[in-house]
Design a protein that fits this description.
Elements lengths: L6 H7 L10 H21 L9 E5 L5 E3 H17 L2 E6 L6 E2 L10 E9 L10 E9 L9 H4 L8 E7 L3 E6 L4 E7 L4 E6 L10 E3 L10 H11 L10 E2 L5 H11 L2 E4 L12 H14 L3 E3 L19 E4 L1 H14 L16
Parallel strand pairs: 3-5, 11-12, 11-13
Antiparallel strand pairs: 1-2, 3-4, 5-6, 6-7, 7-8, 8-9, 9-10, 13-15, 14-15
Helix pairs in contact: 1-2, 2-3, 5-8
Bound molecules: 6-O-phosphono-alpha-D-fructofuranose.
6-O-phosphono-alpha-D-fructofuranose (P6P) binds next to loops.
Length: 349
């Protein structure tokens, strides 16, 4: 395979890049890559096998768990349990964190937070879905890792990445030294380096938001949407609207083509919908490493205080110039949104 560099080869090659270069993080990333290949196999034949439809159970979000959600969760947890490098797993599908109490993991130093199958409501209609993962090093140095090791600020991540199961399957990750993308070559069953050193365009003309909630958006977001729609040739407007309902797909497009993805707070979701620990923090780390920007409209996502495994946040993320424009509109028309019970809006840190 002349010129092809697999994920495994790349991880080993870059191992010296991070301070704890004893191979532990390399093995952890390898374990995640293996689980991603297993999930990919099932996602790609979901329409064939009897794994569509609700599994009957529901997750902490109260959402019906589709069988693929459950399968993906099991695969990632199993890979992390058997890999020996992870001591705690936080998953969107599990109410509490999972402490991995096994002989092989007794010296494990890493915490992994994961959304095993994000956008899973799109599976039945064959729209891209994704896995999002975030990796921290435990803070405590002895005994059993605890919640204090889990609830760390996004700036403390040592690695983050996503898998997008789309027209091709890609794994994109960062360890804080830039962002690299790998495409799965089914003929050899390997993720191969296809997008080295990914850079998010500083500006763009694609905005991504669920405009169905328009009436419930803060005024600043309404103003930004109208700004995107106004005819203005010098600033390449009107922009194009693209929204898939899968955060991973919308952000992957923005990473490659430029653009902005917004899931703001609304009256129904006064703290936003998306989860900080296993959706917004990892995506913000990746986007910032690629030269983009990520906030809740007012404060940098990676600096938000983490107080709960499943806490939600508003998010404005993507090309730097577009995010700055949206933040300007929020500052001007929805300054420091404060708690107002009748609108259900909350104070922004
Ligand atoms: P809505 C999928 O359920 C998800 O968590 C993200 O992947 C996606 O961006 C968002 O929710 C879609 O939410 O309210 O627009 O359907």
């Amino acid at each position: 395979m002349q010129g092809v560099k697999t994920l495994g080869q790349f991880i080993i090659e870059k191992q010296a890049d991070f301070p704890y270069a004893k191979g532990e993080l390399s093995r952890l990333l390898r374990d995640i890559g293996i689980a991603a290949k297993l999930v990919n196999r099932e996602v790609n034949k979901a329409g064939l096998a009897d794994i569509l439809g609700d599994a009957g159970s529901t997750n902490i979000q109260g959402e019906g768990q589709k069988k693929l959600d459950v399968y993906a969760n099991e695969q990632f947890i199993s890979a992390l349990q058997s890999g020996g490098e992870c001591c705690i797993v936080v998953s969107e599908e599990n109410d509490e964190y999972l402490y991995i109490d096994s002989e092989i993991s007794k010296n494990a130093k890493y915490i992994v937070a994961i959304d095993p199958l994000d956008g899973s409501s799109n599976i039945d209609v064959n729209v891209a879905v994704g896995t999002i993962f975030s990796i921290y090093r435990r803070k405590s140095t002895e005994g059993k890792a605890t919640m204090d090791d889990v609830l760390q600020q996004g700036t403390q991540q040592v690695a983050a990445g996503y898998v997008i199961y789309g027209s091709s399957t890609m794994l994109v990750y960062t360890t804080g030294k830039g962002v690299n993308g790998f495409t799965l070559d089914p003929s050899i069953g390997e993720f191969c380096l296809s997008h080295p050193d990914m850079q998010m365009p500083k500006d763009g003309n694609i905005y991504s938001i669920n405009e169905g909630y328009y009436t419930h958006f803060p005024d600043g977001i309404k103003k930004y949407i109208k700004y995107c729609q106004v005819e203005d040739k010098p600033t390449n407007r009107p922009y194009t609207s693209r929204y898939t309902g899968s955060m991973v797909a919308d952000l992957h497009r923005s990473l490659i083509k430029g653009g902005i993805f917004i899931y703001p707070m609304t009256a129904q979701a006064p703290s936003g919908k998306l989860r900080l620990v296993y959706e917004c923090n990892p995506m913000a780390f990746i986007v910032e490493q690629a030269g983009g920007k990520a906030s809740n409209g007012y404060s940098r996502i990676l600096e938000l205080e983490v107080t709960d495994l499943h806490q939600r946040t508003a998010i404005v993320i993507g090309s730097e110039q577009m995010v700055k424009k949206a933040e300007e509109m929020l500052a001007c028309f929805s300054p420091q949104i404060t708690k107002r019970t009748f609108e259900g809006l909350v104070t922004i840190q």
